[in-house]
Design brief:
The complex is a heterodimer.
Chain A lengths: L1 H15 L4 E12 L2 E13 L4 E5 L6 H8 L7 E5 L5 H6 L3 E4 L11 H5 L1 H6 L3 H14 L15 H14 L4 E5 L7 H18 L2 E6 L2 H6 L3 E6 L4 E7 L14 H18 L1
Parallel strand pairs in A: 3-7, 3-8, 5-6, 6-7
Antiparallel strand pairs in A: 1-2, 1-4, 8-9
Chain B lengths: L1 H26 L11 H10 L1 H35 L1 H16 L6 H8 L3 H25 L3 H9 L4 H12 L1 H26 L4 H10 L3 H29 L1 H5 L5
Helix pairs in contact in B: 2-11, 3-4, 3-6, 3-9, 3-10, 3-11, 4-6, 5-6, 6-9, 9-10, 9-11, 10-11
Chain lengths: 272, 255
């Protein structure tokens, strides 16, 4: 049984080439106390290497569940997902992707540099290499000088930067972010949006971002997939035309407001 | 700093007021002197019998500490077993709860028969007391880790051993500290009760001996010494916690 599944997945991998993500007819159904909830329904999409995509939708539309399927936390009940030709479980074992969740998930008993180095420590990277890479990413996210601070001594924004730094230490070719800035104030959020842009451009990683902020989705994506709720599925895909030349000036571009408007209408039409 | 100074001042004031009330109540003869001697008499008993009281206090201190150490180590092992095996958890947790309902004091005479009237039975009684509290707290601490931390370790493909070493052992620290704070006072009390029943030394023995010889002032001096021992141990625990686990104190995770 598992053999045939693996064979199917391998042929699917051959078909899809080496796209960062290839999702085929993914469905997730929860069963709790006899009640069946369809969180994700028949969702297919493909994300080219190094490309950025947002899953945009109202709370409870299954966008987080879809991300958790990619991150090998939730098993799809239908369909399959391949990350650069591997199953999510294989990709996780190879630490090919990194997950940044809504809360920074800093371990309170570790200083910043130990929290950032956690992934490398788990992976068994030797100490000298670990220290070098930790220093490098801490510099990249602008936290130099706070290496010895405990999480309780850091602001929400700093903790989230540290979480991003931790994700980057393993040099993943895919970043999975689940509303990473949801708990932050608007200004910090926007500043971090552009920092993530810069980091993505420097590292060349692909991104899947789950968000309910329309402007965040536009800033950080090549494509925005709009999801409907119950059952969650992608009902509209918007291509963002800004290429790789992105800065805070793009917010003043008339196209930015137009795309925001289109996405807002799509979301509102779906809600009514 | 000024806040903690003020707190200490308020505490000292309360001690003084209680002492004054006590002095008045027994000094004015409202309560018979052989029931409650005035605090000045008790202090004098301290001064007059310092070598004796110190000797018995040290016996009680070492008995309690040995019991605390033994009970905590056994509890840690039991809790690890119960946290990792559903079978062990289902089988042994109810037993630990039953043990907590068991009046250990009642079996001290049997323990004396089994282990002799040395330190063995007394340490055992103190150890059982701390074992119960610490085992129950640590099972909770080890099995209730943060869902986010679990997800993080999962996404990093961490092994069970890495999770235990890097997450669970730390998230259990606040539970361990809470258990130790509870255990300290029960250990001292249990050690004293055991000495009272079977001992030939220790504060429990001293209380009993002083009572028989109608040295009520010495009896109260011994009781106050036990209080000082417990408070001292609690203070050391709090200090260790703030030095070794500053994050636990700061995060308000200290239960």
């Amino acid at each position: 049984m598992s053999n045939t599944l693996e064979e199917t997945l391998e042929t699917a991998a051959a078909r899809s080439g080496q796209a960062a993500i290839s999702a085929r007819h993914v469905g997730v159904t929860y069963q709790r106390r006899g009640q069946v909830t369809e969180a994700v329904q028949d969702t297919s999409f493909e994300l080219p290497n190094g490309s950025w995509m947002s899953l945009l939708g109202p709370s409870g539309c299954g966008k987080s569940t879809l991300l958790r399927v990619l991150a090998d936390i939730v098993r799809p009940t239908e369909g399959a997902v391949l990350l650069s030709g591997r199953t999510p479980a294989q990709a996780r074992a190879e630490r090919a992707f990194a997950l940044v969740s809504q809360q920074a998930a800093m371990l309170p008993w570790r200083r910043l540099r130990e929290n950032v180095g956690l992934g490398l420590e788990v992976a068994g990277t030797d100490k000298r290499e670990r220290e070098r890479r930790v220093e490098e990413v801490i510099d990249l996210v602008g936290l130099t000088g706070f290496e010895r601070a405990y999480p309780h001594e850091l602001s929400g924004g700093m903790k989230q930067r540290a979480a991003i730094a931790r994700a980057l230490t393993l040099r993943p070719n895919l970043l999975l972010m689940d509303e990473p800035f949801g708990a932050l104030d608007e200004l910090t959020r926007e500043r971090l949006n552009f920092e993530v842009l810069r980091i993505l451009e420097e590292t060349g990683a692909a991104l899947v971002l789950v968000t309910h902020s329309i402007s965040e989705a536009v800033i950080l994506s090549d494509t925005v997939a709009v999801m409907s709720s119950r059952p969650g599925r992608i009902f509209h895909t918007e291509t963002i035309p800004f290429g790789r030349m992105r800065s805070s000036a793009m917010r003043d571009d008339p196209r930015f407001a137009r795309i925001e408007g289109v996405l807002r209408h799509k979301l509102m039409d779906e809600a009514s | 700093m000024t806040a903690s100074l003020r707190q200490a001042g308020q505490f000292l004031l309360a001690v003084l007021l209680v002492g004054l009330a006590w002095q008045l109540v027994s000094g004015l003869g409202l309560v018979k002197v052989y029931v409650l001697p005035p605090p000045l008499d008790v202090l004098r008993a301290f001064a007059d019998n310092r070598p004796t009281i110190t000797h018995h206090a040290l016996v009680t201190l070492w008995t309690s500490l040995a019991g605390l150490a033994l009970g905590t180590v056994l509890a840690a092992l039991a809790a690890l077993g119960m946290a990792y095996s559903g079978l062990l958890h289902r089988a042994f947790r109810p037993l630990v709860v039953m043990l907590s309902a068991c009046p250990i004091i009642g079996v001290i005479p049997i323990l004396v028969v089994a282990f002799g009237d040395g330190y063995g039975p007394r340490v055992a009684v103190a150890a059982v007391a701390s074992f119960i509290v610490t085992a129950l707290y640590l099972v909770n601490g080890l099995s209730r880790t943060d869902a986010l931390a679990d997800e993080l370790m999962h996404s990093l493909n961490a092994s069970a051993w890495q999770r235990l070493r890097m997450v669970q052992s730390f998230s259990a620290v606040p539970y361990l500290m809470a258990a130790l704070k509870l255990s300290v006072s029960t250990c001292v009390i249990q050690a004293i009760v055991a000495e009272w029943i079977s001992g030939t030394s220790g504060l429990g023995y001293l209380v009993q001996f002083a009572g028989y010889s109608f040295r009520i002032d010495v009896m109260w001096a011994a009781v106050l010494t036990a209080v000082v021992i417990t408070l001292g141990l609690l203070g050391i625990l709090a200090l260790v916690e703030s030095l070794v686990f500053p994050w636990a104190v700061a995060e308000g995770r200290s239960l």
